[in-house]
Amino acid sequence: MSTSSIYAQKNWHLIEKDMDLAANLASETEISHELAEILAIRGIKNASEAKEFLNPDISQMHSPFLLDGIEWAANRIKQAIEADERIMIHGDFDVDGITATALQVRMLRILNANVSWYIPHRENEGYDLSKSGVNEAIAQGVTLIITVDCGTSAFEAVQYARDNGIDIIITDHHEVGDRIAPANVVINPHKPNSGYPFKWLAGVGVSFKLAEAVASVFELPIDSFRQRFCDLAALGTRADIVPLIGENRVLVKCGLDEMPRTGKKGLKSLINKSKLTPDMLNSESIAFILAPRLNAAGRFNEASLALELLLTSDDSQARDIANQLETLNNERQKEQSRIMDEAIDQIIGKGLAETSKVLVLSSSRWHPGIIGIVAAKITKRFCRPSILIAMDESYESGVGSARSIKAFNIYDALCTCNNLLDRFGGHSQAAGLSISGSNLDEFKNTINALADDCLNEDDLFPSIEIDCEIPLCKITKEFAAEIELLEPTGHDNNTPVFLTRNCRISQVRKVGRAGNHLKLSLRHNSGIPIDCIAWGWGEHIEEFALGSLIDVCYNIKINNFNGYETVQMVLIDARASCQ
After folding, report:
1. With contact defined as beta carbons under 8 Å apart, do 204 and 96 qualify?
2. CB 443 within 8 A of CB 435
3. Number of C-beta neighbours around residue 544 at 10 A
4. Average of pLDDT values for 226-240?
5. How far apart are the first and last CA of the chain?
6. Taking the alpha carbons of 139, 142, 144, 148 in that order, is the dihedral positive or negative?
7. Nearest of 93, 72, 135, 142 to residue 113 by alpha carbon
8. pLDDT tens digits, one per residue of 498-523
9. Do 199 and 190 contact (CB within 8 A), yes or no?
């Protein structure tokens, strides 16, 4: 193998774990030692926690009334419905915000509420509740606004609404800054001194909790409510960057179970248009197939299309909108590719990968709805925080999207740069901001100075976290099925990565229409060969010489093809064996 494209390109890090704990978990829960090791890495400390983790069930959900302010909010909504007050649901334009809005609107329609919804225009209004949204509420005669996935820091807009006689219930999950908006009530598990047991709900998760509390005060059957709305909760939760543990894991698991038989015609049409069969509905298909199509609408200022899809009860309209979203997603992919190329040109042209620990890139040619997904790809490729800013033509102002690495809390960094920003908000790994062009250079210098103080070179070198080292003979359908108990996987519960050394290549060939991928057969000594698929590795075929020995790290999947199940390795990285 050459050293230019594969060998020693990434650090491989075999995660340390408590082997005594793993042995106890394996013994007490009758699972394999390897699965027990993975659970130990995930923070599982005893057999009871292991059983709960491996069997997520809706009964594991906490009472919504543990959330501060939610009882008042539920009773205020009940009062509004009974008095026929006009209620507005104010959402956001990403999948989390869209699903959170759809969930609230659907729930209130069941209760015959006088309800409308509002999604801000990404370019003209930006993220969060603003005076534009409040003015629309005033024009409609709204007396109660319920925000979902936003509002905690919308101080001025909330005060403006209150001054105009509108009550405000905020439901949100974003980090809480120095000031909390003066709403009647703010329901956010990140509030200081919050006693809620699980702090990492997505926006749709908090919306789900409020809707459940409303169902309770109306004495509706809670099991029926949860079954009816967990598909929307799963969609928004998996699409957002929140840990797939605890209640998030439960919501996604239960939602995926319900999704194949969903009664929501728009969601059904989206699934059909995406060519997903019931057995293909999983955590990955939400994140990489369904969510991008819904997000495409918001990226091109058509977020209302995605919301209408999730609200419609008309088959024809559902099919029509699903087709429109497919077209928008194709346009998004083209625009994304262009911005990605231009961003990389900036990085290489200015030598930023060698001089900057935070990549701050800007252009007046970039679409503000696309920069977030490009920032994520830039961060993954260069293994450092990145902030892409879409400036206006005069470079007077811009909006940005930030993505980060584990070692750098981007939200905290933006808090430190607060004096240079017009607005900002988000999480430790993802955030949004707006900035004046006159502050751009100082912002670049300041945030890089922060990174210089807390990041070392190891933080900026790509690494692969490996859960377990196993022999090839361990890879069976039974073992793969056991590993699937970790589903749904995602942030903080990643698909486990395995390492096997000294694998002999017995077959290798290109696959795919353009030959972009590789199909290998690997074996240990005289053992049974195991299939290994290497997506996107087609150009490296010359480096996989027949009979040579390689070390590989990979995921394990059960492959279904024409009704026939086989177990296969999915290659992540490879290097020449040392022996």
Report:
1. yes
2. yes
3. 21
4. 95
5. 14
6. negative
7. 142
8. 999 999 999 999 998 889 999 999 99
9. yes
pLDDT score of 7: 45
The tokens for 127 are 């993220």
- Using alpha carbons, select from 332, 401, 419 the residue that is nearest to residue 362: 401
Length of the chain: 579
Of 189, 191, 194, nearest in space to 208 by CA: 189
Q: Which amino acid does the sequence have at 178?
A: D
Place of tokens 């696309």: 370
Exposed, middle or buried, 570 (CB in 10 Å: 0-12/13-18/19+)? Answer: middle
Tell me: pLDDT of 4 over 80.
no
In whole angstroms, what is the distance from residue 208 CA to residue 58 CA? 13
**What's this model's pTM, rounded to 2 decimal places?**
0.88
pLDDT at 229: 97
Residue of 206, 80, 81, 231 whose CA lies nearest to 150: 206
Residue 423 β-bridge partners: 434
Determine the pLDDT at residue 127.
78
| Per-residue b or e along 148-175, where b marks 16 or more CB atoms closer than 10 Å to that residue's CB | bbbbbbbbebbebbbeeebbbbbbbbbb
- Across 71-97, average pLDDT: 96
Q: CA–CA distance from 149 to each of 105, 237, 300, 567 (Å)?
A: 14, 11, 19, 40
Which residues of 47-113 form beta strands (DSSP E)? 86-90
Q: What is the mean pLDDT of the chain?
A: 92
Phi-psi region of 503 (alpha: psi -120 to 50; beta: other; left: phi over 0): beta
Please spell the DSSP secondary structure of 491-547, one letter per residue. Answer: TTBPPP-EEEEEEEEEEEEEESTTS-EEEEEEESTTSPPEEEEETT-GGGGGGS-TT
Confidence at residue 579, expressed as pLDDT on a 0 to 100 scale: 64
- 509, β-bridge pairs: 519
Q: How many CB atoms lie within 10 A of CB 408?
A: 22
* Contact (CB, 8 A) for 328 and 322: no
Contact (Cβ atoms closer than 8 angstroms) between residue 234 and residue 214: no
| Whether residue 8 has pLDDT greater than 50 | no
Find how far residue 86's CA is from the centre of its chain: 33
Ranges assigned E (strand) in 77-141: 86-90, 114-118
Q: 206 near 148, Cβ under 8 Å?
A: yes
Please tell me the distance from the alpha carbon of residue 149 to that of residue 151, in angstroms, as a whole number.
7
Supply 473's token pair: 């003979």
pLDDT at 5: 45
Contact between 62 and 247 under an 8 Å Cβ cutoff? The reply is yes
pLDDT mean over 490-502: 94
**What is d(CA 127, CA 148) in angstroms, rounded to the nearest whole number?**
12
Cβ-in-10-Å burial (0-12, 13-18, 19+) of 273 comes to middle
Dig out the tokens for 250 from the structure: 């439960």
Give the Cβ contact number of residue 468 at 10 Å. Answer: 23
Q: Closest Cα to residue 407, out of 376, 427, 391, 428?
A: 428
